[in-house]
Amino acid sequence: MAKLILMVDGVGSQHFDIKGDMLRIGRAADNDVHIDDLAVSNEHAVIEKNQDEHFPDHVTYKVRDLGSTNNTFVNDIQVSTKSLNNNDMLKVGWSVFKFVDESYPSMDTTAYILPD
């Protein structure tokens, strides 16, 4: 499962699981991620979950800005729509979130190849 982690001074403070097909972000109270910040539009952005049609076990996520006044940023680059990768940083208004995809394969594992 993927999630957004609100980062405060480099430390994760709140977690928002992406449970359904979409996670709504904005200033309005009915958003999944409610941000009480005048720099955030009422309906600012969404994170959409997409099932890969060729690989049924593979899920991808993308962020889509909903025409917000102050834009949405991924890794400090303004985006309108952007696929998200594990550990990407998402900025909405003054809030910074870390995108974590727990199903993302770990590249820390080293393979050992047996000699012939």
Mean pLDDT: 90
What share of the residues lie within helices?
under 10%
Apparent shape: globular
- Helix-strand string: EEEEEEEEEEE
pLDDT < 50 stretches: none
**Strand order in the largest sheet:** 2-1-11-10-7-8
Largest sheet: 6 strands, antiparallel
Q: Approximately what portion of the residues adopt beta-strand conformation?
A: over 45%
Count of DSSP strands:
11
Which structural class fits the helix and strand makeup? mainly beta
N-to-C span: 39 Å
Number of H/I helices: 0
Radius of gyration: 16 Å
Your description of this structure?
The chain is mostly beta strands. The chain is built from no helices and 11 strands. The chain has strands spanning 2-8, 11-17, 22-26, 33-34, 45-51, 59-65, 72-74, 77-79, 81-84, 89-92, 95-101. Strands 2-1-11-10-7-8 form a 6-stranded antiparallel sheet, with no helix packed on it. The chain has a 5-stranded mixed sheet with strand order 4-3-5-6-9, with no helix packed on it. A hairpin with a 2-residue loop joins strand 7 and strand 8 (77-79). The radius of gyration is 16 Å and the shape is globular. The termini are far apart.
